[in-house]
Sequence to fold (221 residues):
Amino acid sequence: MKYLLLLLSLLSSTATFSAMNHGGMIMDETGMIMNHNPDKLPKDCKEISKDVDITIRGGHKFAKDFNGKMFTYDKRDWQVPGCARVNVTFINEDDIRHQFMLHGLPGYMYPKGMFTIEVYGKGQKTGSFIVPSRDYTYYIHCEVSTHTEKGMKAQLKVGKGSGDLDSILGLTAPLTPDYYPVNNDRFTWLSLAFSILIGALLIRWLSTLLVSKIKKSSKST
Ligand SMILES: [Cu+2]
Fold:
């Protein structure tokens, strides 16, 4: 009976795994990898030029030195040669979901031009992709809710790249800088003068009230 149960559970787990591993997506209870590609060469590459291992950590603690930011990666800028195989180990150091999502890969190999690793909580996953030969700067971010705006943005340059992207913490200026306006116009001064006047009147009124009370109580004794 015990062995039968064990066999049944083994069978069901392999069935679940095969069901979750299709269409370029590898998924389990800790996260997923989309468009993992360790061996298919882009049209313009005859062979893999180099194996590049990248370890990237994501979490709120890496953003603590940047005002107004909440999440980021520990590194935000890489450079690899054309036709390189990039093996990414993405480590999520938070208890919430984070992604390493790269855009701009050729659509004929990578649906929507994307390679993605997503880790649902603390943990890590490793996946690979092969870049084409052209010089280009690939955009990397975490798409979860507002994490991109909150600092989770990076870039990967292939060859010389095609320039730097904006708003990468510690590297490039934000496209739309955070702006905390304090508009001291004449209404500010008017309302300030009005408050002072009201305050002075209140103090005057309260002190006369107090004086009359003291007078009253001294008369009565
Ligand atoms: Cu995130």
Remarks:
- The chain has a mean pLDDT of 88.
- Residues 71, 98-99, 142, 144, 147, 152 surround copper (II) ion (CB under 6 Å).
